[in-house]
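Structure first, sequence second, as always.
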């Protein structure tokens, strides 16, 4: 929201205005002013909001950026690379494990010298899982060949994004550039920010886009090029040398363009932000958000007569080695705070690079203390800043560094709080009730399943304890528990990252009463494959005999929240190998754990935070994928869909799933579950909404055994089919679809639902389809 406070506007030659926004909002705001051609993206906290804000602006027609939702960060990086080779201005944003997943693409982008801008909203890297801000992802970026600009606050996020594209496209540089800000500290913190008032002034500063500047372009038919050829030595080392030279030139180019920017805006981002360093004897080096807090500490120490100062870099690639050596030439001791460890290197990356800078430039007198701090989003307060200075002051007083490297802010364990089991392990006899029987008809090859009335299964213990942190009305756990009623005996479960994982495992507590493993979206199915085969190998070698197992485990991977987008490749691989396991997808039609972004399971026209509804956009722009049919194409023995609105059907399919997973191979199941928070529906209406989805034929109940399809509930035969619009009216996220202005999208959605239903009926009637 714009506010007019003239006295807040720094002096410059360009017209500016004041807004009150967060770091993520300012990254998106800068991107919309630059008006990039393409943004490939994939949601991950805390960077997800960047794409959300851009999509919201797109829905109201504020920019022309083509937003492409990828199936994972690796693909989003590929989209960006492809667009950049085609002469487009390209933008992306990611965090933590998302960045690591795209890491393979990063040196390709820089090694072939195609410019773009990536916002890294810094976050801790798993495992175990933590979504808060530190620099463990940033440090992986240091060797990728990208210049890296640093942002201490939302104002810097805006300014650095504009500086970044100009730096990336400069003919002396021609490299992709990263803009790094601190997750949650900066990304979600709202501050007053000054911006260019007019888009044309932004464009005047950054200059012509690559294709107009004569850069290589795969779309230039008059100048065909080969991108990324196979290269032997000495060509490869020569290519790397040229890239290295470009990186070092980037430092000088940055210094030039930041001075141009200062003339325009009055805001300056020198290579090093030096605070009261002119006569400092002790100093602290910190990056990004912490570097602002330490300035207050410097002032407090100065009032006591201590000559303190602080250093914060605005660019860390190329590393400002000479500038740091110059700034420290008269400093007696400096504490370097690294918000990530370089395990085994006796310090984080920054402290070791600072030591190298001092050594290179002949400074052997400045004492350097290394402290790892703030991991996993641990707050940094003024008292922590005082502690950082105390390390340096102590070294000066003793003329030696007694503890060169240590962690700061960690706490010793309390023996009185030693973890104890709260619930006793479930008894096998309670889980293996014998109430459900599955037998195979040898003549027909079909399974015969006998399931008692559901009330008879209520005595089976729940496999997930109450007390988890799910939202009111969440359909995940009612759906999972209903499915687990059909499973006899012991299970080992693996949960992908997602709502079901996050709300059940807040350390030191766990709601899982059976053995549980977590791994990331893209590798969950592969991980459980390893567990399965380890079980069978160890069992065959007699290594499990001492455990007294009464039956084989049933191995279940639980996925959802878009996990069958980013995790589909691993799932298909596991299916083709036909491991004895179950993949169970809870389909909530989006990435709900990161704020309700669209996934490939989101139906056409549905509103999410990255498929907003406005005059220029009516929700998601393409149809949802049919994961059941995709997995069926791998020829696994059993595929099914289910719903808690039809409990007997789901329990029966669970029993079948267990039989196939223990006797023949991989099973895939998909249950539709409600998400009241993000579907904008009433908590109490969950079961009826899911039931309407089935009765409208949007979510048919089916099973596919050895390639033969059976519809297990046909609403038409029951006289219960309802119009698709009846289902859509039950949710706030889809109410707009029945309005006249979105009629085209509704008709397209309706036609696709009907087409899939008719094809399904044909398969039901013909076992060869």
């Amino acid at each position: 929201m714009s506010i007019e406070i003239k006295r807040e506007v720094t002096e410059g030659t360009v017209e500016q205005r004041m807004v009150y926004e967060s770091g993520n909002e300012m990254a998106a705001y800068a991107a919309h002013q630059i008006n990039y051609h393409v943004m490939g993206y994939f949601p991950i906290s805390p960077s997800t909001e960047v794409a959300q804000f851009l999509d919201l602006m797109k829905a109201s027609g504020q920019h022309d950026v083509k937003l492409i939702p990828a199936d994972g960060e690796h693909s989003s990086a590929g989209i960006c690379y492809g667009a950049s080779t085609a002469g487009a201005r390209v933008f992306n944003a990611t965090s933590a494990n998302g960045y690591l997943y795209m890491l393979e693409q990063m040196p390709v982008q820089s090694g072939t010298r195609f410019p773009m801008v990536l916002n890294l909203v810094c976050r801790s890297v798993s495992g175990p899982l933590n979504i808060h801000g530190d620099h463990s992802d940033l440090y992986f970026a240091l060797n990728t060949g990208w210049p890296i600009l640093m942002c201490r606050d939302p104002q810097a996020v805006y300014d650095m994004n504009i500086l970044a594209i100009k730096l990336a496209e400069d003919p002396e540089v021609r490299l992709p550039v990263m803009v790094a800000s601190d997750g949650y500290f900066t990304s979600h913190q709202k501050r007053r920010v000054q911006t260019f008032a007019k888009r044309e002034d932004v464009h005047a500063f950054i200059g012509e886009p690559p294709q107009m500047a004569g850069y290589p372009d795969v779309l230039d038919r008059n100048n065909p090029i080969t991108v990324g050829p196979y290269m032997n030595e000495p060509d490869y080392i020569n290519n790397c040398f040229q890239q290295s030279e470009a990186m070092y030139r980037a430092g000088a180019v940055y210094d030039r363009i930041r001075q141009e920017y200062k003339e325009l805006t009055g805001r300056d981002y020198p290579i090093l932000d030096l605070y009261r360093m002119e006569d400092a004897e002790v100093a602290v080096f910190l990056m990004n958000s912490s570097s602002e807090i330490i300035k207050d500490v410097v002032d407090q120490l100065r009032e006591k007569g201590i000559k303190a100062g602080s250093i914060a870099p605005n660019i860390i690639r190329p590393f400002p080695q000479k500038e740091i050596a110059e700034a420290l030439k008269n400093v007696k001791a400096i504490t370097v705070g690294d918000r990530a460890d370089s395990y085994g290197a006796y310090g984080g990356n920054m402290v070791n690079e600072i030591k190298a800078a001092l050594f290179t430039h002949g400074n052997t007198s400045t004492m350097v203390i290394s402290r790892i701090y703030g991991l996993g989003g641990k707050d940094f307060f003024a008292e922590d800043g005082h502690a950082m200075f105390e390390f340096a002051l102590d070294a000066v007083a003793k003329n030696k560094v007694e503890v060169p490297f240590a962690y700061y802010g960690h706490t010793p364990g309390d023996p009185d709080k030693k973890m104890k089991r709260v619930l006793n392990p479930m008894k096998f006899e309670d889980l293996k009730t014998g109430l459900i029987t599955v037998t195979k008809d040898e003549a027909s090859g079909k399974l015969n399943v006998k399931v008692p009335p559901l009330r008879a299964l209520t005595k089976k213990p729940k496999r997930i304890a109450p007390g988890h942190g799910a939202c009111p009305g969440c359909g995940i756990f009612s759906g999972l528990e209903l499915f687990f009623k059909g499973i006899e005996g012991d299970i080992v479960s693996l949960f992908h990252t997602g709502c079901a994982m996050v709300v059940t495992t807040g350390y030191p507590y766990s709601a899982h009463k059976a053995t549980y493993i977590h791994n990331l979206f893209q590798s969950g199915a592969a991980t459980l494959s390893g567990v399965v085969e380890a079980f069978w190998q160890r069992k065959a070698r007699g290594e499990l005999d001492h455990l007294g197992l009464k039956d084989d485990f049933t191995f279940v991977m639980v996925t959802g929240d878009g996990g069958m987008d980013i995790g589909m490749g691993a799932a298909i691989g596991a299916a083709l190998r036909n491991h004895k396991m179950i993949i169970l997808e809870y389909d909530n039609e989006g990435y709900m754990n990161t704020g309700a972004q669209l996934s490939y399971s989101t139906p056409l026209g549905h509103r999410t935070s990255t498929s907003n509804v406005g005059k220029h956009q009516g929700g998601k722009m393409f149809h949802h994928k049919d994961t059941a049919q995709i997995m069926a194409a791998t020829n696994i023995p059993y595929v099914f869909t289910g719903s808690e609105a039809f409990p007997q059907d789901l329990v029966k399919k669970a029993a079948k799933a267990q039989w196939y997973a223990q006797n023949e191979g991989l099973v895939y199941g998909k249950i539709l579950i409600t998400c009241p928070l993000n579907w904008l529906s009433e908590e109490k209406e969950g079961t009826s909404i899911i039931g309407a989805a089935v009765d409208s034929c949007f979510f048919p109940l089916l099973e596919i055994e050895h390639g033969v399809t059976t519809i297990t509930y046909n609403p038409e035969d029951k006289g219960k089919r309802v119009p698709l619009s009846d289902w859509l009216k039950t949710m706030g996220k889809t109410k707009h679809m029945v309005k006249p202005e979105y009629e085209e999208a509704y008709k397209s959605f309706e036609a696709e639902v009907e087409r899939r239903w008719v094809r399904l009926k044909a398969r039901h009637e013909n076992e060869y389809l």
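Margin note: The domain at 456-765 is CATH 3.40.50.970 (Rossmann fold).
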